[in-house]
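Tokens in:
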């Protein structure tokens, strides 16, 4: 069994820990974590049975993999001893905006470094993570990495220059979906539905449509057209979206998020 060390114990680290345990990919005794001054790490350990390390040396004593799950601003404050303690280990970072070269400067003796962009549905095992590695992964390390990422859902390998677009599409993407859900709910209320009814209809429609898209071999456009009768209700609604350049708006939104991701990762 792989021995996992987590530096940070927030929501995404907790999702990874719980996913590893529930899938049988790890036992509580295979996982150790460390946190800051707040009780997050202790709370995660109490909830899952994993160990809390008192210091970084203990954290990495027998670890095969270090998962960096701290806040971006905390990376520079990590002690220099980690450069030595991570020697020969696989280091996986879910720290937003921190490039592989930055990680390599902090952990120069790691056997490899992997940068990951997960998303919040990973907290319930339905997320998707984009990832890239500093050097080509060995077969064994790729299997180990995918054990971790599959604890959150699905995973896709990309080149590092594409990580900003991954951040904009899937990292930020759940927020777009939640905003759409809120807009659909409010539109239903405006059309005369009770708030609870509008909320239920919006949520279940999004959930069902997403499942249908995932399980179908057809494109989103084909599935859309199957709902759309000529001059029918769906056609009338889609004409409004078309008139307001709905897709163009999303292109602008994703472009803005991609640009901001690039700005945040400059020299980081």
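Residues out:
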């Amino acid at each position: 069994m792989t021995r996992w060390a987590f530096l940070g114990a927030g929501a995404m680290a907790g999702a990874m820990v719980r996913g590893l345990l529930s899938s049988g990919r790890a036992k509580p005794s295979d996982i150790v974590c460390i946190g800051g001054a707040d009780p997050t790490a202790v709370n995660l350990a109490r909830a899952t049975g994993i160990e809390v390390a008192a210091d970084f040396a203990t954290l990495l004593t027998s670890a095969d993999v270090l998962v960096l799950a701290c806040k971006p601003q905390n990376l520079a404050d990590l002690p220099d001893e980690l450069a030595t303690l991570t020697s020969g280990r696989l280091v996986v970072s879910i720290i937003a905006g921190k490039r592989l070269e930055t990680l390599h400067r902090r952990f120069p003796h790691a056997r490899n470094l992997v940068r990951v962009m997960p998303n919040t549905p990973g907290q319930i095992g339905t997320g998707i993570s984009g990832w890239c590695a500093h050097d080509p992964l060995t077969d064994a390390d790729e299997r180990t990495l995918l054990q971790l990422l599959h604890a959150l859902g699905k995973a896709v390998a990309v080149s590092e220059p594409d990580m900003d677009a991954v951040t904009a599409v899937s990292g930020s993407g759940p927020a777009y979906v939640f905003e759409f859900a809120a807009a659909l709910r409010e539109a239903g209320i405006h059309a005369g539905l009770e708030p609870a009814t509008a909320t239920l209809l919006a949520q279940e429609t999004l959930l069902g449509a997403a499942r249908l898209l995932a399980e179908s071999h057809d494109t989103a456009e084909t599935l859309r057209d199957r709902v759309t009768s000529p001059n029918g209700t769906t056609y009338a609604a889609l004409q409004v979206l078309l008139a307001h350049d709905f897709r163009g708006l999303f292109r602008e939104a994703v472009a803005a998020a991609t640009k901001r991701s690039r700005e945040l990762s400059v020299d980081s």
